[in-house]
Amino acid sequence: MTRPLNPPGETPGVGVPPRLAAHMTVAEQHDWLRGFLAARPVSRRSALRGAAGIGLAGGLASVLAACGSPTSGGGTGGATPLGVTGRHLSFGTDPTSQMAVGAELTAKPAGKVLLDLGIDTQYGTTIEAEVRELVSQVPQADGSIRAADQFFVHGLAEQLRPGQSYHYRFRLPGGGTSQDAVFSTAPTARVPFTFTAFGDQGVNAAPANSSIITKDFTDDYYKQGDDRRTPAPASSLVELIARRHPAFHLLAGDICYADPSGDGEPVKNAAPAKEEKGFDNFDPHTWTAYFASIEASAATTPWMFATGNHDMEALYDDNKAPGGATHGYGGHAARLDLPRNGPSKCPSVYTFKYSNVGVISVDANDLSTEIATNAGYSGGAQASWVRQTLAALRADPAVDFIVAFFHHCAYATSASHASDGGVRSTLTPMFDEFGVDLVVQGHNHQYERTNPIKGGRTGVQAPDGATVHPETDGTTYICVGSGGRPRYTWQPGETDRYRGNTGPDSGTQVTSFLNVADGGKTPETVDWSQARYLDYAVLSVDVTPGAPGADSTMTVRAIADTGQEIDAVTLVRKASGTAPKPTASGSWTRTPTGLSIPA
User: Fold this and answer.
1) In the sheet where 145-157 sits, what is the strand order?
2) pLDDT, mean over the chain
3) 82, 51, 78, 52: which is closest to 69 by C-alpha?
């Protein structure tokens, strides 16, 4: 039977009845939503004020109460005090000179919000931040509309010094401020550094007002008897990352799960359709809870996001995305700032360089044959850009290692999603051609590391602690969808395989499947599944640039939420020793610029 275009439970349910949404693209869902709202004589403001609304004061206040109080500031003239919550950073196109600082405001400000910046707590430089309003109107099964009005603040710091630490704070109308925090720009020198990564994070509990919105559904369907994880894995991993102070963190899609299931049930891949119980699951305040939950790390460490299937939010897609593409990322434009040097049709596709490493973010939603909701939206522009970017990175004498990260897996096993044929067929030939060293994936809620793969087969066996030479051995693919969501299961007969495992070991050769067009699943016996851990873990990658002609190393470690290292492999390349050059600034048209740090 042909698989639905939009399988139940695999993309956010934003108010389209599940029986209809299953056969709709993001653009078609948005058109349905527009028609639903147009047919109901309720104004945007009355929806926000009325009893049908999610409600800024009630909904947001309850979320913030569950997450901890935000930093308070000046007044707004409304019922909710103005404060700052969920601060988060991201690099600009050039990490040596740009940093984007974002947060959510608890209410609409009555005046300008400013970003103070300096090399100490005297600051000395102030720029006007941009406030972006995001209105969410979610249709309900009874014909009503639940709505929320959110305000996100963003300031772009430019013309910064490489390798410099900066203090920053937001200053609010009335004189209140956020707490001081510190970030560091990337160095121009080839220096050792650490970065971290995972995917599929979410928050550990539904927002405090979720009983209003999702009725009897929560996303906390964790399994009993799991002795190796903490009670709150997503939060514990943020704490682990914060303690390691990485240069940056990569999140390989499925960020906050504002609607964790799509149809109100904890369904998994290809699950049969459930009886329709309403279509009112989407809660925009889950983003509030999410940013608050990562602030302990993200306020001082850039978090760089790729988009997954749970990040396609048709509620916000106004069919006016850059280049005319339709993808459901309109809400992300209000909440996030990402480098804008990718193809114009793909706002979550970008690249940046740090020391001797080039990083590329890919939108696997555009390539997936398993979940075709957004497949092909770029019209091939992304694939062309990826080829050009990989060629440029490999030709750059300052770049030793190339890291790609995205959501759907090119190579993974599991009983849920396993491997995606569209992602594999599009990306892996280019990764082979240009010698990509490390690929970070999500989607399957587990940790799994492959042997280095070249031409679809194992290049060399790489057990725990091994040394790999990607130039001859191939690319190492790691699924680290172990960032906090309820864990999946392995294929029948497949077992965990990691350092310290005392159970059975089913080896590196296992039977799995490849998702292909029209919902087909092609069985395959793979020889590359080297390490597996069916619990919560984060990648911690230590990079050491070598002198000219010597070895540069990238040691990739899997750290369980207990803090225990469970797997490691070291990638080695000969270094050119050339210092990196600044990257072109790219376009940041939405955010005020002009920051100049005094000498």
Assistant:
1) 71-72, 83-91, 99-105, 145-157, 130-139
2) 86
3) 82
Residue 134 and residue 151: Cα distance in Å, rounded? 6
Domain ranges of the chain: 187-207+218-225+233-256+285-557
Q: Quickly list DSSP for 37-92.
A: HHTS---HHHHHHSTTS-IIIIIIHHHHHHH-PPEE-S--SSSSPPEEEEEEEEE-
Q: Mind listing the pLDDT tens digit for each residue in 420-459?
A: 999 999 999 999 999 999 999 999 999 999 999 999 999 9
Q: 533-572 pLDDT, tens per residue?
A: 999 999 999 999 999 989 999 999 999 998 999 999 999 9
Q: Does pLDDT of 223 surpass 70?
A: no
Determine contact, residues 229/447, Cβ cutoff 8 Å. Answer: no
Spatial CA neighbour of 186 closest among 69, 258, 94, 95: 95
3-state class (DSSP) for residue 381: helix
Domain 187-207+218-225+233-256+285-557: state its class.
alpha beta
Q: What letter would DSSP give residue 283? A: -
Q: What are the structure tokens assigned to 33, written together?
A: 């939503």
Residue 267 has a pLDDT of 31
Task: Identify whether the C-beta of residue 9 lies closer than 8 Å to the C-beta of residue 297.
Answer: no
Residue 73, pLDDT score: 55
Length of the chain: 599
Instruction: Quote the DSSP letter at residue 384.
Output: H
- How many DSSP H helices and E strands does the chain contain? 11, 28
**Cα–Cα dist 397/403, whole Å:** 16
* pTM of the shown model: 0.91
